[in-house]
Amino acid sequence: MRSKIVAGNWKMNNDNKQTKALVKGIRKSIKKLPLNNTRVIVAPTFVNLSTAMKRAKKSTIEVVAQNMHQSKNGAFTGEISAEMLKSIGVKTVILGHSERRSLFGETDAILAEKVNAALENELEIIFCFGEQLADRKSENHFDVVKSQLENGLFHLEAISWNNIVLAYEPVWAIGTGETASPEQAQEMHAFIRKLLQEKYTTAVADTTSILYGGSVKPSNAEEIFSKKDVDGGLIGGASLKVEDFAAIIKAI
Ligand code: 13P
Asked: Annotated catalytic, 169?
């Protein structure tokens, strides 16, 4: 059975004090929830990873990184490697977020290298992808998503998929307040699952969690999560407020 996941991508938000308060608040608000097969994840900034991990200790909250560099070490000022994340106990990393792709020039080829580096260090990957508004308008969205998956991930062997979570985030829905309709999300998630089945096996398709991201909030979470191929969400803005994030976790 694949896991349900609610993951908060904090992006470049929350200083050290705010990180402590937010983890504490989430911890308190999910304490009594029956989270049987549901993972709760937060992704703070690099500088606050250790703080968040300390605060999340002995709770079910998982603390993950938002990015990493593909090289082991060397002259890459300002970058962080998979080895470094692993050395402080991080187990999962988000890769390929649309902001990394569009603002920081991360290409499919770079992402494939990052994927390999993460897996070599036994890090699980939350791999993000999704089409731009123009792609959807021109009805190219399926082709765009297919090529992002093929170029970033389809070089992997089936066994590596035990460590991959997918996050479909249509760029036009990120931070815009405009959400894909539950039907649009389901349609794309079913398409992705079919690609996995064709490229790999039914087992890979059935066991890979596929999250939806893009303006998920308490008011729309339940309906989106009710779709059969949507296994949870990658949440931006609404993960920064305890009440909203907790309500989204309850929705799942
Ligand atoms: P919003 O939930 O703010 O639209 O952000 C989504 C996102 O980018 C999560 O990675």
From this structure: yes
Ligand 1 mutation target, pool 103, 132, 174, 241, most atoms within 8 A of CB: 174
Buried b (16+ CB within 10 A) or exposed e, 187-199: bbbeebbebbeeb
| pLDDT at residue 1 tops 90 | no
Q: Whose CA is nearest to atom 1 of ligand 1?
A: 236
Quick: pLDDT tens for 62-73: 999 999 999 999
User: Are the C-beta atoms of 209 and 166 separated by less than 8 Å?
Assistant: yes
Nearest atom, ligand 1, residue 238 CA: 2
Residue nearest to atom 5 of ligand 1 (CA): 236
- Report the pLDDT averaged over residues 86-91: 98
Q: Which of 248, 234, 252, 217 is nearest to 95 (CA)?
A: 234
Q: Residues lining ligand 1, judged by CB closer than 6 Å?
A: 9, 97, 169, 174-175, 213-216, 234-238
Tell me the residue ranges of DSSP E strands in 92-209.
92-95, 124-129, 164-168
- pLDDT by residue (tens digit) across 171-194? 999 988 888 899 999 999 999 999
Closest residue by CA, ligand 1 atom 2: 236
Question: Which residue bears the tokens 């897996």?
Answer: 119
- Report phi then psi at 123, rounded to 5: -90, 140
Per-residue pLDDT tens digits for 90-120? 999 999 999 999 999 999 999 999 999 999 9
pTM, two decimals, is: 0.98
Provide CB contacts within 8 A for 203, sequence distance 6+.
Answer: 158
